[in-house]
Write a structure and sequence with these properties.
With 293 residues, this protein is α/β, with parallel strands linked by helices. The chain has ten helices and 13 strands. It has a seven-stranded parallel sheet, sandwiched between helices. Strands 7-10 form a two-stranded parallel ribbon. The radius of gyration is 19 Å and the shape is globular.
């Protein structure tokens, strides 16, 4: 299958492209600007989207492009909606017109985190931040305007292709005598490699709909930081901090653990426990550091 990956230079895209290739797909990479093997594509420009699709004739599109700066979105609402909502709307219209599937990557932030139990794909959304609302708007456009769609919600991503919590904690743990990390938000750390693998499997099913794809298990950000430092061989103390003490501009869901019910229903294996996926990340990280040292 010829697959167009939008946002191919992002953290997820950098693992998604090789995962698709390993599965035997022909991959065309696209991003906002040309370079590094990517063709330029502005998903907020419907005419450009239609021209690119007419030229390439892909058999499926995966949209991993997103405005992901959660706090900046609170004061840059137009930009968040332009990329997360309008961009997805344009891709949905273009895919529907030529009858090909669209896969859209979404987030646990579409939930408010007050349910008191893990969310499955059938639970009601109620985003509280601009980022969450813009991503839910993107979901709605995909649902309404592209019959052959996959919506893939994920959370707490880490991968080698971009800035992530793992690298932030390792750097801070090496430089500071102690860290303070939020301990009243619960979620599911997710490896981009694990996510990409599940997305490739979903693309082969023709079972269109909404799916949750996260690492197995759950933890707080403090728990995650402690395990990162342990696996990184650092003994830096990690003290608890409340969400109110951190005082970020955008509200976060307090308990946004996602159940991967949909994957099980279509026969796709469970994701690794997040601790194991983190261990894989750390091994690969050491290899990369050794290669460039």
């Amino acid at each position: 299958m010829k697959v167009l990956v939008v946002g191919a230079r992002g953290m997820l895209g950098q693992d998604l492209v090789p995962a698709l290739q390993q599965a035997g797909h022909e991959v065309v990479s696209a991003d906002r600007t040309e370079g590094h093997g990517c063709l330029p594509l502005d998903i907020t420009d419907l005419d450009q989207v239609r021209r690119v699709l007419a030229d390439l004739r892909p058999e499926a599109i995966i949209n991993s492009a997103a405005y992901t700066n959660v706090d900046a979105a609170e004061t840059d609402e137009a930009a968040a909606y332009r990329i997360n909502a309008l961009g997805s709307w344009n891709l949905a219209l273009a895919c529907q017109a030529i009858d090909i599937p669209l896969m859209y990557v979404s987030t646990d932030y579409v939930f408010d985190g007050t349910q008191g139990r893990a969310y499955d794909e059938y639970d009601m959304t109620n985003p509280q931040s601009v980022y969450g609302r813009s991503k839910r708007a993107g979901e709605m456009h995909v649902e309404r305007h592209c019959a052959k769609h996959y919506i893939v919600r994920t959370a707490w991503l880490f991968g080698h292709g971009g800035k992530n919590f793992v690298e932030t904690i390792l750097k801070a743990g090496a430089e500071r005598p102690e860290l303070r990390v939020v301990n009243d938000q619960w979620g599911c750390p997710t490896s981009t490699i694990e996510l990409a693998d599940a997305m490739v499997s979903l693309l082969a099913t023709d079972r269109y709909g909404t799916y949750h794809v996260t690492g197995a298990g759950e933890c707080t950000w403090q728990d995650f930081a402690i395990e990162i430092l342990r696996q990184g061989g650092l003994a830096t103390p990690v003290l608890p901090q409340t969400t109110e003490e951190l005082a970020r501009p955008a509200p976060r869901p307090r308990y946004s653990v996602l159940l991967n019910r949909g994957l099980a229903m279509v026969g796709i294996r469970s994701r690794k426990p997040w601790q194991e996926a983190l261990a894989d990340y750390m091994v690969a990280r050491e290899s990369r550091l050794a290669m460039y040292s």
